[in-house]
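pls read this protein.

:::
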Amino acid sequence: MSEQALRDYVEFSDLVQREDIRLCESVHRGMRSRVIDSGRLMLSRERGVQHFQSLVYRFLSNPENA
């Protein structure tokens, strides 16, 4: 990997982490408001999480995986 490619990757990773921090802080503020006490994923923004959770569920619910 070239030095520039590595710098680009680190910059992109930092950007994603900063975005995640802002989203998590926003969710925590919303949860503290007590308007809702739980809820589903925000599917318009969390498709990757939904996909991962469905894979985990499928794996754990299959007796052949035990």
About this structure: The chain has a mean pLDDT of 85.
